[in-house]
Specification:
By secondary structure, this protein is of the alpha+beta class. About 20% of the residues lie in helices and about 25% in strands. It folds into two domains: about 50 residues, RNA-binding S4 domain (Structural Genomics Hypothetical 15.5 Kd Protein In mrcA-pckA Intergenic Region, Chain A); about 160 residues, Pseudouridine synthase (2-Layer Sandwich), CATH 3.30.2350. The longest helix is centred in the N-terminal third of the chain and has 9 residues. The relative contact order is 0.15.
Length: about 230
């Protein structure tokens, strides 16, 4: 690989800055200063810029506790985005795995591993997602059976797949679904004459939101969490 491409892929230096650094003798390969901008590197070569080793970037996997008021997008002209909460280089390259509405809180996964993202979001995999739902009205016990049998949402031609509803109190429940239709949870409750006042995602498949992470903060996923989608 060309040296300038390697540095550009693994640092935030611009192409112009890289060429200037090379001309100034600030970049070395295996402790030998580089004089040419078109130098090439091989696997195992040690590239140093201004005394600091440049390491090849590895795929990143993050768990974010999304607060309300943030858009699940890389950019937005009206609202802050979940990427505004991330403090690391190349954050614009992160993909949002399983988006949440502006007012919905809870678990969001982020990665720059496109294949891993696809394993989670592809409809054919049917990963279960669990939400804590608070409604404006009392949740009737009949909703348990209705959701288990599938609900025909407004504007849809097929009912939702079987969903599991556990009623926790008069107006709070935990709902687990394996689809990702537009505003699905809110539309399911609207279909039974109720309104979702607040919505919080607790889990995506085997990955549960870490309760120690406050809203707006994040942490890397563990190896087991990353590997859970390989099973």
């Amino acid at each position: 690989m060309r040296l300038d491409k390697f540095i550009g892929n693994n640092t935030e230096l611009s192409r112009t800055q890289i060429h200037i650094a090379i001309k100034q003798g600030l970049i070395s390969i295996n402790d030998i200063p580089v004089a040419k901008t078109n130098a090439h590197i091989q696997d195992g070569d040690k590239v140093v810029f201004d005394g600091k080793l440049i390491e090849e970037r590895k795929a990143r996997y993050l768990m974010l506790h999304k607060p309300a008021g943030y858009v699940s997008a890389n950019s937005d002209s009206e609202h802050p985005t979940v990427l505004d909460l991330i403090d690391m280089p190349f954050k614009q390259e992160l993909q949002i795995v399983g988006r949440l509405d502006l007012d919905t809180t809870g678990l969001i996964l982020l990665t720059d591993d496109g294949q891993w993202n696809h394993k989670i979001t592809s409809p054919k995999h049917l990963h279960t997602k669990s939400y804590l739902v608070t409604t404006t009205d009392t949740i009737d016990e009949s909703a348990i059976t209705i959701f288990a049998e599938g609900v025909l949402l407004k504007g849809e031609t097929k009912p939702t797949l079987a969903a599991e509803l556990t009623i926790l109190s008069s107006n709070q429940a935990r709902l687990s679904i394996c689809e990702g239709k537009y505003h699905q949870v809110k539309r399911m409750f609207a279909a039974i004459g109720n309104h979702v006042a607040s919505l919080h995602r607790e889990r995506i498949s085997a990955i549960c939101l870490d309760e120690s992470i406050p809203p707006g903060k994040y942490r890397p996923l563990t190896r087991d969490e990353i590997a859970s989608f390989e099973k």
